[in-house]
Structures are given as C-alpha cells and as structure tokens.
Design a protein that fits this description.
alpha+beta; 150 residues; seven-stranded antiparallel beta sheet; globular
Amino acid sequence: MIVDRTKAPSLLDGDFDTIPVPDSAVASRYCAADLEIRFQKGPELVSPLAVVYVPYSVSVLHGGRYIFAATIECDDLRAMAPLIGTPLKELQADYGVRGFYGERRVMLYGNGERETLGPYFGSDDEDEIISFLLSLVLDSFDEIAEPVRL
C-alpha cells in the first residue's frame, strides 16, 4: 500500500473498528520527515466491540491528521466466544491454540483501505517489532528519511 500523505483521508472518518486510537498506549514517538509516528503497546481500539487484540501498532499523523496505521493483531477468542455463542474451549480447539488469541497477522490501514500482509512470523523482541513496524511506515509512504525518536 502506497499512501499519499497530502491526499490520504483521516482514518477516523472510515469504517474500520479495529484501528487503534492514536493517543492510546503510546510507548514511544518518532518523526520521519513530516510524519509523526506513534508506537503503541496494547492500544485501545476505536470500537469497544472489536473482537481483535492489537499487541503492537504504529499510528501515523501528518499535519495532525491520523492517516495510517500498521498493526500486529489477532482474534480475541474471549471476546468472540459470547458473541457467536461458542464455548471458549471449542474456539481454542478450532484455532489450535491454548491461549486466548488466534494467530498474529500484520494489517495496514490507509487510503480508506485495509490490507492484510499475512501472518506475523517475526521476533517477540520489542526492538525488532518497532523496527519492523517503522519499516512498514517508510515503505508505505515511500519515505527515505530515517525515523528519529522524539
């Protein structure tokens, strides 16, 4: 996904209930050219009814407008079970997991679209996760400036 920072619509004007609230759970902030990038750990989502858990994400602002997000997210089986009327243990068996979450996947939100990049097979090391998410931002904006931590 390539995003034109000057023409991209605000994510808050879209229909995505699984995007992170841009001010929620901000662990660190970065700047790359004229982009403000917020790294988030376990942020609140715009819809309290979302049935996904986002352990890590980055939210990107340009001129104060929230125009892009990259997330590592997974289905929240605890939230899903009562909504679909299936016991949690049965969902865990269906997903092939013992915990409360499904497989982690990488999602991009921008240009009024949602794009799935597939499963996240990367490291659990936070520095590597930050590096991965920042690289997604740079690629999506075709930005060559290195992010600087604020």
